[in-house]
Amino acid sequence: MLHIPALEKLVHELSRLPGIGPKTAQRLAYYILKSKDAYPEKLSEALLRVQTEVHTCPECFNYTDRELCKFCEDPHRQSESICLVEEPSDIVRIESSGAFRGRYHVLHGVISPLEGITAKDLKIQELVAKIDKGLNDDGPTIKEIILALDADIEGDTTALYLAKALQGKNVKISRIAHGIPIGSDIDFIDDRTMGRALENRVQL
User: Fold this and answer.
1) How far apart are CA 79 and CA 28, in angstroms?
2) Cα 168 versus chain centre, distance
3) Are residues 61 and 48 in the same domain?
4) For the domain that residue 27 is a member of, what is the CATH number?
5) How far apart are CA 147 and CA 84, in angstroms?
6) What pLDDT, on the 0 to 100 scale, is given for residue 204?
7) Which pLDDT tens digit goes with each residue over 71-83?
8) What's the CA gap between 150 and 142, in Å, rounded?
9) Scanning 35, 45, 141, 171, which has its CA 20 to 30 A from the CA of 192?
10) How far is CA 151 from the centre of its chain?
């Protein structure tokens, strides 16, 4: 790439996005440059708008442009169960299944010592406070916390920490099942996934 500081800066910033490598960042930068006035202006406007209009919901920490997110505002959702997710984007996938009608709580990450992320960096204390408030209020008591975390080391570490942090809160703690995806061939399943599938087996 030509030594053009402005262009190199754009490539660098684009490469910081998740899933965007240096080559992809370079292609995106050249596309933006080639588009001239039309696309760069629209992109800039969209970035500024999302920065000023979108914030975290004070109740569940999902992203919203209203006082509360639509899930916290919905009076028809069950308040007795809370699905705990790593990121707001996880809510979209859970909602698409249509299998959960409770409320959410977003941690905004998982415990990862290698990346310097500890429990204090996550919305764990807010969850504990929410459960304590539910136990003390006259309203619905939170009866179950569903951990919808990734089946990796960080997810397992966070799940174990949460289980310990929520001990004695008189709340059921469960975790979504992990195993063989529907429609997949058992010959291509890795050992870790097979182990989880056997652990999470159900009776017919």
Assistant:
1) 43
2) 26
3) no
4) 1.10.8.420
5) 5
6) 59
7) 999 999 999 999 9
8) 23
9) 171
10) 13
Distance CA 10, CA 25 (A): 8
* 32 and 92 belong to one structural domain: no
What pLDDT digit, counting tens, does each position of 16-55 carry?
A: 999 999 999 999 999 998 887 788 889 999 999 999 999 9
Clarify whether residues 47 and 28 are in a common domain. Answer: yes
Structure tokens, 184: 């997949």
C-alpha gyration radius of the chain: 21
96 vs 181, higher pLDDT: 96
Residue found under tokens 């030594």: 3
Share of the chain above pLDDT 70, in %: 94
77 contact partners, CB below 8 Å, separation of at least 6: 71, 101, 102, 103
- Tell me 183's DSSP state: T
Ramachandran angles phi, psi of 113, nearest 5°:
-55, -35
Confidence of residue 97 (pLDDT cuts 50, 70, 90): confident
- Rounded to whole angstroms, the Cα distance separating 37 from 35 reads 6
Q: What is the pTM of this model?
A: 0.83
CA–CA gap between residue 199 and residue 179 (Å, rounded): 9
Element (H, E) at 148: strand 144-148
